[in-house]
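Thread title: Can someone regenerate the structure for this chain?

I was given the following input by a collaborator and told the matching structure tokens would be attached. They weren't. Posting the sequence so someone can regenerate them.
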Amino acid sequence: MMNDVADSTDVAGTVALVTGGSRGIGAAIARKLASHGAAVALTYVQAAEQAKEVVAQIEAGGGRAIAIQADLTLPDAAVQAVEQTVRDLGGLDILVNNAGFLTYGPLDEVTETELDRVLAVDVRSVFLASQAAARHMREGGRVISIGSCFNGHVPAENFVLQAMAKSALVGLTKGLARELGSRGITATVVDPGPIDTDMNPEDGDSADFQRSLTALGRYGAAEDIANAVAYLAGPGGRYITGTALAVDGGYTV
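Best answer:
Regenerated them for you:
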């Protein structure tokens, strides 16, 4: 699998699972991987119609896709999503841990319930999905987690929970790289900067501030993150592991 680097993003014949793939960055990743030849499973919590639309778009382009309802705050949901992907699509080669919350607010206002929810989805489900996926992956497998520019730079107050949760992915990824490297499986993180999605629109209340923190002075698009994931998932990423790739417009410069 993935021995020819002539096309750095060719993932034909592989199976991918994208968590949180019904909208925004996750949907862009699912469509991108499918356009490069992967069969794709994507998870959603409540956005069933949006998930069905992404599946329909992939199928209209000649690809193969399924949508899986998975509430990743539940301990067994990530594992069940992996197992359903393997069962319905015939294996698993690429795991993209994309699901997560965009959380901000003063430290004193973070509740225990909010803390538990963020850690359950942004950290615990990533670990459990990666653990389950590794049992099925062959040589050339990929574990790619979507982090945050807060992994390298926290520019203001109110982001302590987000920074903590996303930074945990860096340590997890380094551990996975060592654990799985002998099997030819890579593990990486993609750290987006400000990306125009419904969760963080480029015309939102804090958009001007976020733009001012980037070297390019603008928001990125979900497609920018999808392109980076496609590269890491394909032959181009075969010698990249245990590291984070910033796709942030110079946010952390």
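The mean pLDDT is 94.
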